[in-house]
Amino acid sequence: MIARSLAGIHPRPRGRETSLLLLAAVALLTGWLSLATTQAGRLSAGDPGLLVIYLAAAGVIHVLFVITGRRTDQVLFPAVVLLGGISLLFMARLPPSLVTQDAGPAGVLTLAPLQLVWLLLSLSIIAGLAIVVRNDTWLRNYKYSWAAAGVTLLLLVFLFGDEVNGVRLMLRVGPIVGQPSELLKVILVVFLAGYLAENRALLAGTSLRVGPLDLPPLAYLLPMLAMWGIALAVVVVQRDLGAALLFFAVFLGLLYVATQRTSFVALGLLLAAVGSVFLYAVEPTVQVRVAIWLDPFAQALGSGFQIVRGLYAFGRGGLVGTGLGAGLPSPDGTLAVPALHTDYVFAGLAEELGAAGAIALIGLYLVIAERGLRIAARGADDFRALLAAGLTLVLVLQAALIMAGDLKLVPLTGVTLPFVAYGGSSLLGSGICVGLLMALSDAGVEAPAPPQALTRGERWRARGRGVAGRVERAVR
Amino acid sequence: MSAFEILVWILRLGFLGLLYLFLAVLARGLLRDLRGATARTTRAAGVLVVMAAPAGAPPVGATMALETITTIGRDADNVVVLDDAFASTHHARLTFRGRVWYLEDLGSTNGTRLNGRPVEGVVAVGFGDEIAVGETRFRLEPASA
Hints:
The complex is a heterodimer.
Chain A: H1 2-7, H2 15-40, H3 49-68, H4 76-93, E1 101-102, E2 108-109, H5 111-132, H6 137-140, H7 143-160, E3 162-164, E4 167-173, E5 176-178, H8 180-204, E6 208-210, E7 213-215, H9 222-238, H10 241-259, H11 262-282, H12 284-294, H13 305-317, H14 345-377, H15 382-406, H16 424-441, H17 456-464, H18 466-475
Antiparallel strand pairs in A: 1-2, 3-4, 4-5, 6-7
Chain B: H1 3-40, E1 47-52, E2 63-65, E3 69-73, E4 80-81, E5 92-97, E6 100-105, E7 112-114, E8 117-118, E9 122-125, E10 130-133, E11 136-141
Parallel strand pairs in B: 3-4
Antiparallel strand pairs in B: 1-2, 1-11, 3-5, 5-6, 6-9, 7-8, 7-10, 10-11
């Protein structure tokens, strides 16, 4: 088995990736030099151990890509490496005691080393998926199982989740604390891609006419209403506005991609508007969020403190920023902006790298968007196209939501900036997205077998697939 | 301005400059890709590679670009014309709908097989699948560069 799969491997040079990675490495090393020099007050490289480990890991993964010789996208990985590197630079600049984790024999890890660990895990996930995944049947055929797993995960958080700052997001399993919504978004995309790919033709048909709207048969609208309900439930029970908004936006985006019907989007926006008014009426959290978005200065020392400080950070940054390490100091360990390493990482980077740096960051996310949508456009069939489009939407919409939130363009929602914000769950979830995108970008991926009657052996194996198979049959 | 300040400025602007260099290199490649993509839009969505042909026409290993509706058979009005005594005049049809190739048998005498199994009705064909018409066998492949 192993010998056979090794026989099919032919190394293939990836020149574009090599040069982009080298460029990213040079940029990051320059950034490190700039940071260390500013901090030391003289020309200094500081202790570049973290960055060197990170770049070495990226190099090793690149070599693995070359050796295994798959024709995957050559731009996504360098772009992600650069984003992660910027994150590492910024975490190394923040007070190390911000986050600490007892790592047993390795001692107590502080902010930057922890982020390095998560970044390395994330890059390994990308590498693993991009090299190993050659077949998408396990995603395609088990969409209802994935949906069931997602709902279970959601229920677990509802029941056993820990509340942090009044938001119930975290799930604790032994010593590991995770944010399941990061995993949930990937599962959601897999389910939606599977569902829409199967029912695309039916959804695009018209049988109901409500005023100016042409609607598909009512039964096929049910998942849409269910999605709306789940989004509302997420807000009410978890008070997690960001995840709810992201889920619904990705859902609408995919629905449009699949059917090209603006009436769906209009209907979805209408539902979202109704839901928002309802939530505003019943949820005090939402009222506060909207109030401090409209006028943070009314509560400048209270609930609007974070937004006000964030806006000042953008202002201090100006055009080219204060320089890495020269932003507003945090003398006694308190940050200039609360949650500077997570929700407000964009404001922090904009302060030290300026508008120029912030726009470069947006540019990097645009690159990811372009690559992802290109992979989607080249997808061999509906499922792959929708999956790639959905994964791209998740990454990019999330980045847009939090960047716009930091800039006070939309009410602040607590989603993370993919690959830049501190946090393990977010890095792993985003890593899965990019890894799958890279796997999908390989034109040589086996196409699914045409639907055929099962042979006896296959039927036996299908029966043996246990729970997953049973769930699929139950739903049908 | 002291020498140190100048140094810090060089490093700061250098970092930003390199970030933009990275983006510029990407943008150049991206534009090249886009131009390539528009040039390729007229290309066929798939090709048939001849795996085996009894009479040697078409030759083994030949690739044939497919049209959106590709008919296969012995008659000269087919898109893919076979010199195969076991093929019917209008034997089978490949159609490209959405993003998927579909294969159907056109009531041929000896039938059409997909991966060795007889085709009944319309079936989806994936890239890499083997289509057998008479004694001629093809493999469907994506039309890569």
